[in-house]
Amino acid sequence: MTTGNILLVEDEDKMRSLLKRIISYEGYIVHEAPDLRTAGKILDAEEIDVAVCDMRLPDGSGLELTRKVRSCHPQVEVLLLTAHAQISDGVEAMRSGAFDYISKGSDNDKLLPLIARAMEKAVLQRKVGQLQEQVAHAFSFGQIVGQSMLLQQMLAMARKVAALDTTVLLLGETGTGKELFAHAIHAASPRAAQSFMALNCSALSKDLLESELFGHKAGAFTGAFKDKRGLIEEASGGTLFLDEIGEMPMVLQAKLLRVLETKQFFKVGSTQPTDVDVRIISATNRHLRAETEEGRFREDLFYRLNVYTIEIPPLRDRKRDIPVLADHFVQLFAEKMNKHRPEMTTAFLQLLERQPWKGNIRELRNVIERAMILTDGPELGVESLPVEFREEARVGAPLSAFDLASVEKLHIQRVLNYTKGNKVEAARLLNIGLTTVYRKVEEYGL
Predict the structure, then answer these.
(1) Is the predicted pLDDT of residue 280 greater than 90, yes or no?
(2) pLDDT per residue over 68-110, tens digit each?
């Protein structure tokens, strides 16, 4: 039995009653309206899939309803009915966004099949919309886990630039979450409904990277049997994320610069330019300024990419986030492995917090996944962590009076006491950066 919600808009009572009976026999739930005003209220209150509307109504026309639906309820499909079919009305109906246009009486046998087809399209569009919402949520800023002040500052910067079309350069060590930031910026931008394409510039040879990025024409090289669209063209209207941009060969850097400057590029083997509208977000763990000084990266491209830079801090500089991230990954893998969620012991967390995390969040995720595989009990203890973690750490050992960290902690505390907590003044007196002060305050729990 078919299901779905139909809005039937017809001012003639007998005709409305007849159409309702016919449509209801197919299993649809039918909502009735004698005019546009009532139809508008129903559209706002109910989850309508298809609207079947008379072309002529006491307070307007079916075209007006179609335009309202396209504007306010784009998931609803509209079928227009008329007693006097005219080609001009049909053309106008389709231009307004109606699913179809039929005449009463002579086309009655077409009504139910058209409703079925319109229902299929409406249901599919609703599912696509739900999937888009799920994807947007999965890559939103809310999915970037952490409470440290450093991370919050970076998130604030990313949120500010998301609404603009500015080129963004993400800096940070491997595993800090640069691609997650790029996804979140795209998801919060006006381009969110369009494509997000990602390419790791270090993963391919020069020729493959050029073809993957810019596409090629058939016959451009051996094996190019047909035209291929590159990722820049695929991402047109949306966002292209170029990871490890510092690894891009110089000759391709020149082609990318042309895209940024002219919004045009040439496919491999083509003499005709292709127009694109794409936002570029790039990322690297290299020091691009030093790379330009040493002639390994184009200075002009660096300045085009470096319009708005966000430096994502390594995990060791935001230790406050380690327990939060660990808890997030424990929950994630408990659901994936269909396990009861174990609690992390104090010793387990202390050991995590004492690690340098050279692989950053990616390394932490892998360690938690391994621990979850090894653990079947109600707790995650140190025995489920890698052996090297246990060997290198002194779990719970207090800092000695001769330990450099102890001396540094005491000195910073004294300076902060002197400045009455003013971190800007403390940074000036200590002759270090303000971000370093925040990091040390967090690291030592001051």
Answers:
(1) yes
(2) 888 888 889 998 887 765 655 556 667 777 888 887 765 667 8
Which of 366, 392, 418 delimits the end of a domain?
392
Same domain assignment for residues 126 and 248: no
Q: Do 250 and 153 fall within a single domain?
A: yes
Q: Are residues 245 and 354 in the same domain?
A: no
Check pLDDT > 80 for residue 350. yes
For the whole model, what pTM was predicted? 0.63
User: Which of 268, 242, 244, 261 lies closest to 301, judged by CA?
Assistant: 261
pLDDT in tens, 370-420: 999 988 889 999 888 888 787 655 444 444 445 566 677 778 887 888 788
Cβ-proximal residues to 283 (8 Å cutoff; 6+ apart), any chain: 169, 170, 171, 172, 178, 179, 182, 241, 242, 243, 244, 245
Does residue 176 share a domain with residue 95? Answer: no
DSSP letter string over 115-178? HHHHHHHHHHHHHHHHHHHHHHHHTSGGGS----HHHHHHHHHHHHHHTS---EEEE--TTS-H
Q: What is the CATH number of the domain that holds 86?
A: 3.40.50.2300
Residue 31 clears pLDDT 60, i.e. is over it:
yes
For residue 248, the SS3 value is coil
The alpha carbon of 406 is separated from its chain's Cα centroid by a whole number of angstroms, namely 42
Q: Tell me the chain's radius of gyration from C-alpha atoms.
A: 30
The residue assigned the tokens 């973690």 is 389
Residues 185 and 84 in one domain: no
The one-character DSSP state at 221 is S
* Nearest Cα residue to 329 out of 288, 305, 363, 354: 363
As given in the structure block, the two tokens for residue 35 are 């005019």
Tell me which residue range forms the domain holding 107: 5-135
Classify residue 280: in a domain, yes or no: yes
Q: Report how far apart the first and last C-alpha atoms of the chain are (Å, whole number).
A: 67
Does 211 share its domain with 296? yes
Q: What is the CATH number of the domain that holds 287?
A: 3.40.50.300
Residue (of 305, 289, 2) closest to 182 by Cα position = 305
Lowest model confidence (mean pLDDT) among 210-219, 240-249, 292-301, 425-434 = 425-434
353, two tokens: 């917090």
Which residues sit opposite 266 in a β-bridge? 273
One domain, residues 328 and 309? no
292 and 337 fall within a common domain: no
Q: Which amino acid is at 87?
A: I
| DSSP secondary structure, 100-123, as one string | EEEETTTTHHHHHHHHHHHHHHHH
CB 197 within 8 A of CB 234: yes
DSSP state of 306: T
